[in-house]
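go over this chain:
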Amino acid sequence: MAGPTYEEKRQIFERHFLLGKMSTGEVDTLLAYSRVERYPATTEIYAKGSPGNCMMLVLRGTAKMSSVSAEGKEIVLNIMNPGDLFGEIALLDGSARSADAIANTACELFTIDRREFIPFVRSQPGLAMKFIELLCTRIRWTSDQVEQVILQNLPGRLASALLRLTEKHKLEPQGRTIAITQQEISEMVGMSRESINKQLRAWAARDWVRLEHGVIVVLKAEPLQILADAGSGDEGE
């Protein structure tokens, strides 16, 4: 697969909710610092505890943020789609990575090294504020995820996860497509794959979602929002 042209890379930056705030000259400067890296599916991008020396922007494919317990149990923290930034926490504070990053599918990433990015962002106070907003969003996401796992029943937990994974995308006629397997979403919400499959099939029968190989398409967000808002009731469909 041919990599993106310079103009395509520029357009990706200009469309980005955060990087798009930069001027044309600033975009050119950041593009000059960046490089494109490719990872086959299931390849490790970086490991938890490794040095945080770069930040990534997904161009194509998806990446999975996860953490594994000493007993080998994995929890999926987030799925990063095209246009999503990740690795920015360790890049900004210079500490170790807080999670594992895995190529969920074959993916292509912009990579920007810390040694170039930190001097650049110091000269851009407006951009620095945007990164603070991004970090706050990450904290809220994590807090919501912990709250849902502890307090919500399975339908509410699953509905909340699907809505969070689609909140960055506008609802189009074909629905919102989430590139995630049922095993991965089970690891995200802390329930068995069998329970997830049963619940999704019940919703598919109501045309709330459509199940495809490695993909869940949200067709009707409204009933899922009702379940998410209901929160901590009894288990049910």
User: Anything to note?
Assistant: The longest helix spans residues 125-151.
